[in-house]
Design goal:
heterodimer; A: Alpha-Beta Plaits; 5 domains; eight-stranded parallel beta sheet; 45 strands; 13% helix; B: mainly alpha; 9 helices
Chain lengths: 760, 192
C-alpha cells in the first residue's frame, strides 16, 4: 500500500478528462460468476493530484490491492457493505479519474469432451489446408506467440507449496506435454500466483498452444500451425479456467514488453460487456506492433464478448466440420474472421471421433471446482471459439515469419484472402485460407467487402456495394454477378462504390469484385423474385417450374426453395393418401410459393430423377402438398431428360415419392408445335401442330397481359398434322387490335408458347 | 356577364366536379381490382381515373403501385412523382414513391418521401398490400441514404429497428458494418 502511494505522489495535476464509459447499471454487478465482489478498478490520469486520489480512496474506505503501472490503473478493495455501482459513480465524478469499472472475471471459452485418438480434420484440404501452407512456411524461430491463458504444460517443475491444493500429480511435479518436447519456449509469467512458472493448471492453455505451435513432423501426437515459432506461456487464468481482467491486462503488457509478435487470448467475459483496462492494455500492445487475436465467445448470441470484440483485436468465430457457424459461437459487430472450432456433438466425417479440434493436453483437465491432473497427457477433441482463435494466431505467426510485418499488413493478408462463407455479421471476412494468405502480395493493403442490399419490397433489385475496409480505391472496381458485369458508381463522401443489379431468377449467385490490386468473391442467395412467367428453378437445380407468360398475376412472389417438410410428413414414412398406400418420399420437397395460388393456365413442373440410382422410373410418383395434406399428381416420365413431369394448376409444395405398385406412364413423344410465320397477316399460316398419337390438348391465343382471347382447340385430337391459320379475331369473331399475342399449347404434361405479332 | 355566359361557366364547373367524382369512382374500382390481385383491371380503372381528371393524384398513385408491382420501376416513379405533384400529402404515394425512387437512382427523393411517411404515421402499413409497412419504409430510407453517402442517417434508421447495433459511420469498416447489417435485415424480411 505504501509503495503504491509513494508512486502516486509522482503524479501531476491534469485537467479533468471526460470518459464516456460503459453504463454499469445495465449489468448485474452482484453476479460473482462474472464480477469480483467488493472490488473495483480505477484509472487515474498520468499526472493526477495525489492528495485528491488519497482522499478519494480514504473517503470510500478502500484499499489498494494491485496497480498496473503502465496504465495507472489501481485495483481497489472496498469496505464491507459498500455498493459497487455507487462507488464507481463516485470515482467517475472525481476530477483525476479517467474511468472506474468493476473487476471482471473472464473465463476460457471451451468445452472439453472425452479424450480419443483421431485426425485433425480442421487442417485438411477440405478445411484450412495446412499441408499446402506448410509447403510455403512453417514458421521462424524469431517469431513469438504469447498464449495468454491458463498456462502451458511446458516444463517439468516441482509444484510449489502454494499451488499444491490446486492441481493433482502422482509425483508432485508439473510435467511438460510430451508433444512439446521439440517445441521452443521463451520465458513467460504467472500472474495468478505472481511467479515466473506459468505451468498449465487446467489443460486449456496447453490445448490452445498446441494448435498454434505443437511440435510437428516429430513422430509424436499431432501437428500445430506454426511449429517453428516460439511460444510464450502467460498464465492469467487459474486452475478453474477463470481470472481477473487485471491479470489479463498485466499478461498482455508483459507479452508486449517481452517481444511477443502475436498474442492469443482464447478467453473473455459476458457478451457485450467490455473491460476498459483490458482495452487499454490491448491498445498498448498493438501500438508496439503486436497482433492481438481473441475468441468471439461461446454463448451463441449475436453479440461479441470482449476482448474479442475490440476493434484492435482480430475477433474469431468458430465453424464446424461443414464450415458453418458452430451452434455455440458468438457473432456480430466486431467479428473479423472465422476458423475451425469444431462441434463435439456430431461426427460428420464418420471417423468415429467427435468433430472437435484435436490436440494433446491433460487426460484429466481442470473443471469448475478442481484443477487438472498435471502428469498425464492424451489426445483430446475440444470445441469452442477458444479452439478457433489459435488457428488465426498460428496463421498470423506464419505470415510474420514469411515477411509480412506490421499489424495492418498481417490483418490485410488474413482478411483479404479469407474464403467467403456467408454474411460478415456471422463470419467476418470469412474462413481463413492460410495458403492463400501466404501468397498475399500486399496489393497496397486494399481489402474489399461486398455487401448486397436488396430492395425491401422487390427482392430481385439489389444494390451491389464494394467497400474498401482497408486501403483506397482510386477507380471504380470491376464487379460481376455470375460473369455479368455491373456498372459501379462512386458514393459521395465515401471510398465505396455501388451499382444496380436485377436478379432474374432465384438461386445462388457468385459475385466477384476486383480493384486496387485486391479481389473478393462471395455467394449471394436470392430466395424470391417477382416474375411474369418463365422458368423458375430450385436452388439445387433438381426441380423447375415452367410458367406460361401471363399465367400468374405479375406481382406474384415466387419462392423456389428446397426444404424438408418435417412439419407435414415424417421421413421414411409412407404418404397416406386414398390412392397410394406405400409411397415413400424421396429427396427434399420443393416449394413454389405462395402456396395455393391458382395459375390461370397450367404450368409444367419438372423434377429430375437423374440423381437417383436403382429405381425404376415408372414407380416414381409426384406428390403435391395442398390444403393440409399430400396428394398424388398425375404425372409422366420423360426418360430422355430423366425427369418426372406434370401439369400443375396451383402453386405449392412438391416432392418425388416411390411406390412399387405404381406404373407412371412415359411422356408421349408426340408433340411438335412449330412457328411458320411470326408476323402473319389475317388468314396466313402461322403454326403447325404434329401429333404422333392421340392426345388431349388445348390450343388457345393469349394477349400480352395474359388474358385468353380465343380458344382454337379444346379436346382430344387423333394423330396427324394440323395447320393453324390466324384470322386475328377473338372468340366472338371480332377483330383484335395489333400487338403481341401468344399461341399457347397445353397438354397434361407440357406447356408451350409461340409469340406472334399482329401488325394489321 | 350575360346570362348565357354565366350558364356556360356554371356548366363547366359542374362538369369539372363531375369529372373528379368519376375519377374517384374509377380509382375505387381500381383498388377493388388491385385487392383481388387483378392488376391489369386495376390499371385500366386507374387510367380511366386519370383520363377523367388528370390532376387527380389518387389515379396516378394507383397506377404507380400497379407499375411498381409489375416491375416497371421508371414508370412507377413517374406516376408517384406526378401524384405527389398534385397532392404532396398523399402518404401512400410517398411510400410507393420511396420504393420506386430507390431503384431508379433518385435517392434524395427516396429519403424525403420515406421521411414523410415516417413523420406522418410511425406505424404505417399500406392498406392494399401488407408487405409494405413502416419497417420496409425505414429500410428503404436507410438503403437510399447509404447510396447518397449519408451513413449517419442509414445508421439511425437501423438503430430504430435494432437498438443494439452500433457502428462508426465515418469509418470504412463502420460503413461496411452498416451495409452488412442492412443486407441482413432485408434478407430476414424475405426469409421470415
Amino acid at each position: 500500500m505504501k509503495i503504491y502511494m509513494c508512486r502516486v505522489t509522482m503524479f501531476l495535476i491534469l485537467p479533468f478528462v471526460l470518459f464516456a464509459g460503459f453504463d454499469w447499471s445495465t449489468v448485474d454487478l452482484t453476479d460473482p460468476e462474472h464480477f469480483a465482489q467488493g472490488q473495483i478498478k480505477v484509472r487515474f490520469a498520468d499526472d493526477a493530484d495525489i492528495s485528491r486520489i488519497q482522499s478519494a480512496i480514504l473517503a470510500q474506505e478502500a484499499s489498494v490491492v494491485k496497480r498496473i503501472e503502465e496504465l495507472n490503473v489501481m485495483q481497489l478493495k472496498l469496505a464491507e457493505g459498500k455498493d459497487v455501482l455507487e462507488t464507481l459513480e463516485y470515482y467517475e465524478a472525481q476530477p483525476d479519474v479517467i474511468y472506474a469499472e468493476p473487476v471482471m472475471i473472464h473465463r476460457a471459452f471451451w468445452t472439453p469432451n472425452d479424450p480419443q485418438y483421431g485426425y485433425q480434420w480442421h487442417f485438411d484440404g477440405n478445411h484450412i489446408n495446412m499441408p499446402d501452407a506448410w509447403d510455403k512456411e512453417r514458421g521462424h524461430s524469431g517469431v513469438i506467440i504469447a498464449i495468454v491463458d491458463t498456462g502451458i504444460a511446458f516444463e517439468d517443475y516441482d509444484i510449489p507449496s502454494h499451488e499444491e491444493g490446486e492441481v493433482y500429480s502422482s509425483d508432485g511435479y508439473y510435467h511438460a506435454c510430451p508433444d512439446f518436447t521439440a517445441s521452443q519456449f521463451v520465458s513467460g509469467y504467472d500472474y495468478v500466483h505472481d511467479d515466473a512458472h506459468p505451468n498449465d493448471q487446467n489443460g486449456h492453455g496447453t490445448h490452445v498452444a498446441g494448435t498454434v505451435a505443437q511440435a510437428t513432423d516429430n513422430g509424436i501426437g499431432v501437428a500445430g500451425m506454426a511449429p517453428n515459432c516460439k511460444l510464450m506461456p502467460i498464465q492469467v487464468l487459474g486452475y478453474d479456467g477463470s481470472g481477473y481482467d487485471t491479470w489479463i491486462a498485466d499478461g498482455i503488457i508483459f507479452a508486449a514488453d517481452s517481444g511477443a509478435d502475436v498474442i492469443n487470448m482464447s478467453l473473455g467475459g459476458l457478451p457485450g460487456v467490455p473491460s476498459q483496462t483490458e482495452h487499454d492494455a490491448i491498445k498498448y500492445a498493438v501500438n508496439k506492433g503486436v497482433v492481438v487475436v481473441a475468441a468471439a465467445g461461446n454463448e451463441g448470441v449475436g453479440e461479441m464478448s470482449y476482448p474479442g470484440g475490440f476493434e484492435e483485436c482480430i475477433g474469431v468465430a468458430a465453424c464446424d466440420y461443414n464450415n458453418v457457424l458452430s451452434y455455440y459461437s458468438q457473432y456480430g459487430n466486431g467479428l473479423d474472421i472465422s476458423a475451425p472450432g469444431g462441434d463435439v456433438t456430431v461426427d460428420l466425417n464418420s471417423d468415429g471421433k467427435a468433430d472437435g479440434v484435436c490436440q494433446v493436453t491433460y487426460t484429466n483437465p481442470g473443471g469448475e471446482y478442481t484443477g487438472a491432473w498435471v502428469d498425464e497427457f492424451s489426445l483430446t477433441w475440444w470445441q469452442g471459439t477458444s479452439m478457433a482463435s489459435p488457428h488465426v494466431s498460428g496463421l498470423a505467426a506464419l505470415l510474420i515469419s514469411h515477411g509480412i510485418t506490421g499489424v495492418s499488413n498481417v490483418k490485410a493478408a488474413i482478411y483479404s484472402t479469407a474464403d467467403d462463407i456467408g454474411n460478415p455479421f456471422y463470419y467476418g471476412y470469412g474462413m481463413i485460407n492460410p495458403s492463400k494468405a501466404l501468397d498475399y502480395g500486399g496489393s497496397g493493403d486494399v481489402v474489399l467487402q461486398i455487401p448486397v442490399v436488396q430492395n425491401p419490397l422487390l427482392a430481385q433489385h439489389a444494390d451491389m456495394w464494394v467497400v474498401p475496409t482497408m486501403g483506397t480505391l482510386f477507380s471504380a472496381p470491376q464487379v460481376t454477378v455470375d460473369d455479368e458485369s455491373v456498372s459501379m458508381y462512386s458514393v459521395p463522401g465515401s471510398n465505396a462504390y455501388v451499382g444496380d443489379y436485377e436478379f432474374t431468377s432465384t438461386g445462388t449467385f457468385t459475385i466477384e469484385a476486383s480493384g486496387g490490386g485486391a479481389s473478393k468473391t462471395r455467394q449471394f442467395s436470392v430466395e424470391t423474385v417477382t416474375v411474369a412467367g418463365g422458368m423458375i428453378s430450385s436452388p439445387d437445380g433438381k426441380c423447375y417450374l415452367d410458367v406460361p407468360a401471363g399465367a400468374v398475376p405479375i406481382s406474384t412472389y415466387f419462392t423456389a426453395a428446397d426444404e424438408e417438410m418435417q412439419a407435414s410428413r415424417t421421413p421414411n414414412k409412407p404418404y397416406e393418401t386414398e390412392v397410394l398406400k406405400d409411397a415413400l418420399p424421396i429427396g427434399p420437397a420443393y416449394r413454389f410459393g405462395p402456396g395455393g395460388l391458382n395459375i390461370h393456365s397450367p404450368a409444367s413442373l419438372h423434377l429430375s430423377y437423374a440423381w437417383l440410382s436403382g429405381i425404376e422410373p415408372s414407380h416414381l410418383v409426384l406428390m403435391a402438398y395442398q390444403e393440409g395434406s399430400w396428394t398424388a399428381v398425375p404425372s409422366y416420365i420423360d426418360r430422355e431428360r430423366r425427369e418426372v413431369v406434370a401439369s400443375v394448376e396451383k402453386l405449392g409444395i412438391f416432392q418425388l415419392a416411390k411406390d412399387a405398385t405404381q406404373s407412371t406412364p412415359d411422356l408421349p413423344q408426340v408433340l411438335d408445335l412449330r412457328l411458320i410465320d411470326a408476323t402473319p397477316l389475317p388468314g396466313d399460316l402461322v403454326a403447325r401442330l404434329s401429333l404422333a398419337e392421340e392426345i388431349s390438348l388445348t390450343l388457345a391465343v393469349f394477349d400480352a397481359t395474359g388474358r385468353k382471347v380465343n380458344t382454337l382447340v379444346a379436346g382430344t385430337l387423333p394423330a396427324g398434322e394440323y395447320d393453324y391459320r390466324w384470322e386475328d379475331t377473338d372468340q366472338t369473331g371480332r377483330c383484335l387490335s395489333p400487338g403481341v399475342y401468344f399461341i399457347h399449347l397445353e397438354t397434361p404434361s407440357r406447356v408451350r408458347n409461340l409469340k406472334v405479332i399482329s401488325l394489321h | 356577364m350575360s346570362r348565357f355566359k354565366l350558364f356556360i361557366l356554371l356548366g363547366v364547373l359542374l362538369m369539372a366536379a363531375a369529372c373528379t367524382e368519376w375519377a374517384i369512382d374509377s380509382t375505387e374500382q381500381g383498388w377493388d381490382a388491385f385487392d383481388d390481385n387483378d392488376l391489369e383491371t386495376a390499371r385500366s380503372h386507374f387510367e380511366d381515373a386519370i383520363s377523367w381528371d388528370c390532376t387527380y393524384a389518387g389515379g396516378h398513385n394507383g397506377l404507380g403501385w400497379v407499375n411498381l408491382l409489375e416491375n416497371d420501376l421508371q414508370e412507377s416513379f413517374n406516376n408517384f412523382d406526378t401524384a405527389l405533384y398534385y397532392d404532396q400529402d398523399l402518404v401512400d404515394a410517398n411510400a410507393g414513391g420511396a420504393l420506386a425512387a430507390t431503384e431508379v437512382g433518385e435517392h434524395t427523393k427516396a429519403v424525403n418521401w420515406a421521411d414523410y411517411v415516417i413523420a406522418e404515421d410511425a406505424n404505417y402499413e399500406f392498406s392494399h398490400y401488407d408487405k409494405v409497412d413502416i419497417k420496409v419504409i425505414r429500410l428503404t430510407k436507410a438503403k437510399s441514404a447509404a447510396a447518397n453517402g449519408d451513413f449517419d442517417t442509414a445508421l439511425d434508421e437501423i438503430q430504430i429497428l435494432d437498438s443494439s447495433f452500433d457502428a462508426d459511420p465515418s469509418d470504412p469498416i463502420g460503413q461496411a458494418e452498416i451495409l452488412n447489417k442492412l443486407e441482413l435485415l432485408i434478407t430476414e424480411l424475405y426469409s421470415g
